[in-house]
Amino acid sequence: MISNTIVRKNAYYDSVTLMSLSSKILELDGIEEAVISMGTEMNKELLENVELSNEETRGASNNDLIIAIKAINNEVYEEALKIIDESLNSKKKGKEKKDRNPKTIVSALKEMNDGNLAVISVPGQYAAREAKIALENGLNVMLFSDNVDLKDEKALKELAKDKGLLVMGPDCGTASINNTGLCFANKVEKGNIGLVAASGTGLQEVMVQIDRLGGGISQAIGTGGRDLKEEIGGIMMLEGLKALDRDENTDVIVLISKPPAKKVEKKILEQVKNIKKQVVICFIEGDSEKVEKSNAIFADNLYNAAKKAVEASGLEIKLELRKNDNNEINRKITEAKSKLNDNQKYLRGLFGGGTLCAEALYILRDKLTGIQSNVAKREEEKLKDINNYNGNVLLDLGEDEFTVGKPHPMIEPTLRLDKIKETAKDESVGVVLMDFELGYGSHEDPVGVTISTIEEAQQIAKKDGRNIIFVVYVCGTSKDKQDYKKQIQMLENGDIIIAESNVEAANIVANILS
């Protein structure tokens, strides 16, 4: 075994590039651990935890690149380091070839003086400063960075409001502006439905379902998950709502969020009354009576939000991708039930998408007993210990407690692969519920890197005289780069129940375990 850690001074790369590269290296045979990151305090803490830290890394700054690798031998280590250098040098040369490698937002504007949006992905402690510079230079902002102080977020959004600009974020992972996907986004048809969402995978799910149902997207604006907290006051959802009301290419507006603060919800619904266009609202766990009093259409789940938006847009619903019918679903449910023994009573949800996890919790709450989750808001449903649990459990593996210093599972699936094998050894679990997100930013082959682990889990259960049922949902369109049909085919070959929406997947699970 060889372990080595290198620090390269003043060699800055954005976090998305480094997370994707870490994922690529971890997939190599013979690599035990790989951390490729900037020298932030959080990343240095991760290095300590995996025993790859040294004196040089402890003194590294936020602008220093750290490459830490643990491999089974020197040959594997050198091959990994070669791939890293080639990837980073290729990126650097690509920029130099274009002769556009600005170091600041102001210099970038000189290169692209007609630009009107900045995507910012720097360590959280610098993000607010950079966002403010962008706003002061007349740019809308998509703030991918997290760990931004709540007071800074509010100040940025108030400044943006005063200037007639948008701040999407902090911690905003999904948007589609003028049919261009940003960060994590699916490729969808252009159309007349505009969306504003305080949730990344919730926004992806509604975009995907609108596309599948025959509709199209004009704009998809992310606000960041904290926008509907009382401290922020829904500033960007309100501004996004107004912007879409003015947009001549938008006829229907959809609002999406996990449960907002009550005062913020009231403020948004009051504003909706003044909107001239049809509004569809999907606040998970929302109140239909309140929504309908605001003259909006209420949707109780993400799929229905998409369906009602397409209907409101005047288009005929299409079901081109849909294969499931009720008879087929019922047959699969009956077959799955027959495979479980009396002790296999429980569900384990292993999610990459936080909003999909929250939606599943909402759907399953009254159908499965004692359900717990790390995204739960109700005290009795909150998971007390993410490392020690039993019963019906839904895990959002993209939450900070799982991803501190690590890539998100949508980028790098190792964490979830480990959880799949761990779950297969729990004799009380009958069903595993999972999601896969396709599109820009996500892993190049999410099902492909997971399917062998699912098969291994099925074999673990069989050796113990059990069966374990996998129910999965793939959030993607036929236009996504990962090839939706190919991803589905791999799952079909693996004896897995495939749902066509997150809500359908949750209901299938409920029926199997009822």
Helix-strand layout with pairing:
Layout: E1 2-8, H1 15-26, E2 31-38, H2 41-49, H3 55-58, E3 65-71, H4 74-98, H5 105-111, E4 117-120, H6 124-136, E5 140-143, H7 150-163, E6 167-168, E7 174-177, E8 180-183, E9 190-197, H8 200-212, E10 217-222, H9 235-246, E11 252-257, H10 262-272, E12 278-283, H11 288-293, E13 297-298, H12 302-312, H13 326-339, E14 346-351, H14 354-364, E15 372-373, E16 393-396, H15 400-403, H16 414-424, E17 429-437, H17 451-463, E18 469-475, H18 484-493, E19 497-499, H19 502-513
Parallel strand pairs: 4-5, 5-6, 9-10, 9-11, 11-12, 12-13, 14-16, 14-17, 15-16, 17-18, 18-19
Antiparallel strand pairs: 1-3, 2-3, 7-8
Helix pairs in contact: 6-7, 8-12, 13-19, 14-19, 16-17
Written description of the protein model:
It contains 19 helices and 19 strands. With 514 residues, the chain is an alpha/beta fold. It has four domains: 97 residues, Alpha-Beta Plaits (2-Layer Sandwich); 70 residues, NAD(P)-binding Rossmann-like Domain (Rossmann fold); 137 residues, Succinyl-CoA synthetase domains (Rossmann fold); 188 residues, Succinyl-CoA synthetase domains (Rossmann fold). A six-stranded parallel β-sheet has the order 15-16-14-17-18-19, with helices on both faces. Strands 10-9-11-12-13 form a five-stranded parallel β-sheet, with helices on both faces. Helix 13 crosses helix 19 and helix 16 packs parallel to helix 17.
In short:
By secondary structure, the protein is of the alpha/beta class. It is 41% helix and 19% strand.
